[in-house]
Design goal:
This protein has about 325 residues and is α/β, with parallel strands linked by helices. It has two domains: about 210 residues, Rossmann fold (3-Layer(aba) Sandwich); about 70 residues, Uridine Diphospho-n-acetylenolpyruvylglucosamine Reductase, domain 3, CATH 3.30.465. It contains twelve helices and eleven strands. It has a six-stranded mixed sheet with strand order 3-2-1-4-6-5, sandwiched between helices. It has a five-stranded antiparallel sheet with strand order 7-8-11-10-9. The N and C termini lie far apart (about 65 Å). The mean pLDDT is about 90.
């Protein structure tokens, strides 16, 4: 009788994390589309997801997005597809995208990537997109939110599940995915942009976090993760309350939305501002805390002000009604 091969600590940790998330969020027969860049995180995710999917009776495909931002990007994509084939994934997609400039290089690349992922999810008839974000990414996201003055939604970081997105590795540190690849003899791509300090996230990773740990102790990383979890709980509850209030107060029209000022005024500030944010977001435009507070001023301190000209939206109060009208196509 052959002896069962013993898993390394990294293999056990990652397979367990993947198994828990997939078991809690999927059903037998569903299909997963794994986003694989070629780095250690996504290759470890691909290997573990393929292994666990067999037990859970799930179908698996992968997709590699070529952002075209480096001269060797096409070659890296080709090499990644070959590695996925060696791992055992037989259905692998790739897509080259054009990265714009809106929001800066990092945001533009992310937007292009997520749009392409959703496109391939639909084309491949997959139920979920599986992403390789780790605990390190989560900590970096919380710090990024702090530097940008973001609200609790941003500071709460990424969720294990966001609609069609699954992130099984949010409890796993990057060092574990790197060790997993060594244990499974997978050679991940080392993206030189992950060392380029012109990118804010890289500066957070390479400069800010190490500095904080040196000055304040090694607990900074775990404290950021714990803060993220606590804020997620709070934000989920507040968002649910705000969604109910929005549905009650907001009345959609022809490229417009009206809000009842008396009902808005009665709401607690945290809920009121979320309702206002939802009203602006209804028009699929960029919004900020400054925009939300400007509309809140119409609710609380109106004395005949002129209409607000927000990006893509005009906001006006007449009597007890606040009207938002689109100034560009949705």
């Amino acid at each position: 009788m052959s002896q069962r091969k013993r898993l390394s600590p990294s293999q056990g940790a990652i397979r367990h994390a993947v198994r828990e998330v997939l078991a809690a969020n999927t059903k037998p027969g569903q299909k997963l589309l794994i986003a694989v860049s070629g780095g250690a995180d996504s290759l470890a995710l691909a290997s573990a997801t393929l292994f666990e999917s067999k037990k859970l009776q799930l179908q698996v495909a992968s997709v590699t997005i070529d952002h075209g931002l480096q001269k060797i990007s096409a070659k890296v994509t080709e090499q990644t597809l070959e590695k996925l084939h060696q791992i055992g994934i037989t259905e692998s997609w790739s897509k080259k995208v054009k990265v714009g400039t809106k929001g800066g290089p990092e945001a533009a690349a992310r937007d292009a990537r997520y749009e392409a992922l959703e496109s391939i999810r639909i084309e491949s008839k997959s139920d979920f997109i599986v992403l390789g974000h780790t605990a390190n990414d989560q900590a970096e996201t919380v710090l990024l939110g702090l530097t940008r003055g973001s609200g609790s939604r941003s500071l709460s970081g990424m969720s294990v599940r966001s609609e069609r997105l699954l992130r099984p590795l949010l409890s796993i540190e990057r060092a574990t995915t790197e060790q997993f690849c060594k244990d499974e003899k997978i050679s991940p791509w080392q993206d030189p942009q992950n060392k380029d300090l012109k990118f804010l996230r890289v500066r957070i990773r390479k400069v800010v976090l190490p500095f904080l740990e040196k000055q304040l102790g090694n607990g900074i990383f775990s404290n950021l993760i714990r803060t993220s979890s606590q804020l997620q709980e709070d934000d989920q509850y507040l968002s649910q309350v705000a969604t109910k209030a929005f549905k009650k107060i907001a009345k959609p029209g022809n490229r417009s939305l009206t809000l009842a000022q008396p009902e808005l005024h009665k709401l607690p500030e945290a809920i009121r501002n979320r309702v206002i944010k939802s009203a602006i977001d209804y028009f699929n435009v960029e919004s900020s805390r400054t925009h939300v507070l400007a509309v809140a001023d119409l609710v609380l301190n109106w004395h005949g002000q002129k209409p607000l000209a927000l990006p893509g939206v005009r906001v006006e109060r007449k009597g007890k009604t606040i009207t938002l009208k689109a100034t560009q196509e949705k």
